[in-house]
Amino acid sequence: MVKRRHMLVVGAARRSPTGHGRPKKFGVDLGEHLLVIRQPIVGMDCGYRADGFAQPAVDAGKPLEYDPAKDIQTYAGAGNLNPNEPPKRVCPSLLGGNNYWPSSFSARTKLLYIPSVSNCSTITIDREKHNQERGWNGGQAQTSERWESDLIATDPTTGEVKKTVHLRYSNFSGTLATAGGLVFIALLDGTVAAYDDTTLAELWKINVGSGLSAPPMTFEVNGRQYVAIASGPSRVARVRLVNTPELKDMRHATVLYVFGL
């Protein structure tokens, strides 16, 4: 058990602060504006605007090469624009570096802790799939790489990455930062772990024997703080086990685990 005194973190982001490899709108009011971070936090194949962090969000996240006069943009980086071209590797993957799994902000360190999918994918175009019957899907994304992840600590006011830890398994659960100096994560191999919020050194972990995709949460009872998480991967998370041979035969269970701090 980690021997630290903890308090509940007060406050939350208005919406998921990250996606497609760069932080999105973060719930901090600056007069009439929102704090907008445009600097990518994972490796990307195209550049995004990184100027004017306190400007209105109307043009937030537009690529540097964006041209409103063009019907087809050319900033797609390594992605195919022509279906006759050979498939190309695109980073981050179709899931976008970080997606709906939540990041967390620490009022103690003033850092944002982002769970990021680290692998890339191969994008192919199939114009015959772009119709109502086939779901308006213009192609497909595939990868032969392992689905792994990164825990990224970044300054939300500048976009500067302070620390990064690479993890051997995917994090589809998110992160939870406490005021006592810990960052909790959960991985698809069943690991629940706590990291130091400054150094990102691993301080504690346990494997519950079943993949996880629910976010960790925290609460207080009679002056003691607890961290709870439900095991069992979602359908989206379970699909990512295909390239992780040692986890392909893992049996999953839905169990609520509660840990005292």
* Tally of strands: 18
Q: Give, in spatial order, the strands making up the sheet with the most strands.
A: 6-7-10-11
- How many domains would you count in the coordinates? 1
Mean pLDDT: 76
Classify the fold: give the CATH topology: Thrombin, subunit H
CATH class: Mainly Beta
Q: How many helix segments? A: 1
- Tell me the structural class: mainly beta
- Provide the low-confidence segments as ranges: 1-37, 46-58
Largest sheet: 4 strands, antiparallel
Distance between the termini: 7 Å
Order of helices and strands: EEEEEEEEEEEEEEEEEHE
Write up this protein.
This protein has 261 residues and is mostly beta strands. Helices cover 2% and strands 33% of the residues. The protein has 1 helix and 18 strands. It has one helix at 235-239, and strands at residues 18-19, 22-23, 25-30, 33-36, 88-90, 104-106, 111-117, 121-125, 139-142, 149-154, 161-167, 175-177, 182-186, 191-196, 202-207, 217-221, 224-230, 256-260. The strands form 6 sheets. It has a 4-stranded antiparallel sheet, with no helix packed on it. A 4-stranded antiparallel sheet has the order 12-13-14-15, with no helix packed on it. The longest helix is centred in the last third of the chain and has 5 residues, at 235-239. It is globular. The N and C termini lie close together (7 Å).
